[in-house]
Amino acid sequence: MPDATALLVTPDRLPEPAAIVMGLARRDLAVVWARDLQEALQLLPREAPQVILVDLATSSGAMDPRHDAAQVCQRLRALTHAPMLVLGTPQDKPRLLRALSVGADAFLFKPIDPELLVASLAALRRRQTLEQGESDSVVRVRQLEVDRETCEVRLRGEPVALTPTEFRILSCLARNLGRVVSARQLLQEAQGYPCTEREAQQIVKVHIRHLRRKLVPAEGERPYITNVRSFGYLLERRATPNANGLANLAAEGESSEE
Q1: What is the DSSP letter of 16?
Q2: Which residue ranges form the domains of the chain, and what is each CATH number?
Q3: pTM for this structure?
Q4: Confidence of residue 96 (pLDDT cuts 50, 70, 90)
Q5: d(C-alpha 176, C-alpha 173), whole Å
Q6: Does a cis peptide bond (omega within 30 degrees of 0) precede residue 111?
Q7: From CA 246, how far away is CA 49, in angstroms rounded?
Q8: What is the pLDDT of residue 256?
Q9: How far apart are CA 52 and CA 7, in angstroms?
Q10: Do the bridges between strand 29-34 and strand 106-109 make them parallel or antiparallel, or are there none, so unpaired?
Q11: 44 partner at 20 to 30 Å CA-CA among 38, 94, 216, 236?
């Protein structure tokens, strides 16, 4: 029997529901259906789903139907870290973009292919499982330690006092070690509300400046946080990065941050 759950939030049963249920069962995922946001919120604490699907057609009661899907995703994201897939049509592009900006992880266009839907949900769940399995509560970068479980940061063994927002930004960078994270994603994780990339850049820039002042590297080493121009920020693992690739872009971007 499946020991994990896929929560499918959709006002109507999807095409070929039996194929979807059986396909997910073969991937050890039991299906739980919710017709709207209220029902999904009731099921969430009991089922603790490992992956969630949200149909853009889902109604959220009194909410404006033009914005309901994004609000559904936003409400669910505030309560769970489970990967979220949204369904919509090509005409739903603005709503899909909005849903992705407030918590959804991927999307599929309707009409859907049951086999592709099953594979997409399974892939999202697998990716999260791998990330959780590989992640350590303590991330070590050179002489910096970020303890995401105790919310503590140490530099050369000494504790560093950070604000909650600063810690969340640093924790997000640590969780994505080696990958560039956009200012928009950093701000959403740190403060929990969506905004444009331009707005996020202006706000995050201030927090990054404060973090750099507190996370002073050893003499001759690069800053712990570098700016990759036009892309976002990176927690730099190497004290003296290669002259090519992201490090070079980061060096170009740093002058505009100070």
Answers
A1: S
A2: 4-134 (3.40.50.2300), 138-257 (1.10.10.10)
A3: 0.51
A4: confident
A5: 5
A6: yes
A7: 36
A8: 41
A9: 5
A10: unpaired
A11: 94
